[in-house]
Amino acid sequence: MNFKNYFNGRILLINNKKLNDKRGSFFESYNFEKLNNLNIKGKFYQDNISITKKRGTLRGLHYQKRPFSQNKLITVVQGKIQDIVIDLRKNSKTFGKYQSFIMSANKSNQLYVSNHFAHGFLTLENNTIVTYKVDKKYSKKHEITILWSDKGLKIKWHNKKNLILSEKDKLGLNFIEIFKDKNLYL
Fold it and tell me: Has this prediction a pTM greater than 0.85?
């Protein structure tokens, strides 16, 4: 396993060693000791699986406020995505900046996203399956959705045409609105 860190180690792109043979392939999707050595502390509370039928489906951009803010460990087990994270730390030099990652089952990579970041992804292939571990339970009351197309964020999505979105994601808030309202911020 090797990794590259972003946003001072708050985001880690982990490249797992993948073993291939005539039967198929194998890699460790979770190893407490190895993650602990990468300074990923704590225990995960819940595993989620997102199954997306159509390429061009966008999920996000989401985060949860305290006390339910979540650290996430994201893995693509089938297909390919463009994953986006946005820095929500007001005192950070990178506040409001985003980072884009291409993740796929073929690469066997994982993304660790700390609870100070919003997260979302766009499927780049049909029948994409994404798993993610979270360290706090889901709380609808504490979830905030940032508008995926917020012009102030200048996100370069791989494909903006004919996107498939949930009603919740279509109605997301502009980034700047969130930080003007103390009830919406982390």
Answer: yes
Query: Cα dist. 115→66, 85, 87, 180 in Å?
Result: 9, 11, 10, 20
2-180, CATH topology level: Jelly Rolls (2.60.120)
Return averaged pLDDT per consecutive 10 residues of the chain, 186 residues in all: 87 88 84 85 89 97 95 97 96 95 94 96 98 95 96 94 95 90 70
Domain range summary for the chain, segments of one domain joined by +: 2-180
* Residues recognised as catalytic: 62, 132
Q: State the pLDDT at residue 186.
A: 63
Structural contact between residues 178 and 61, judged by C-beta atoms closer than 8 angstroms: no
- Cα distances (Å, whole numbers) of residue 37 to 49, 115, 142: 26, 19, 30
What values do phi and psi take at 76, rounded to 5?
-95, 120
Instruction: Give which of 80, 70, 119, 114 is closest to 98, Cα–Cα.
Output: 119
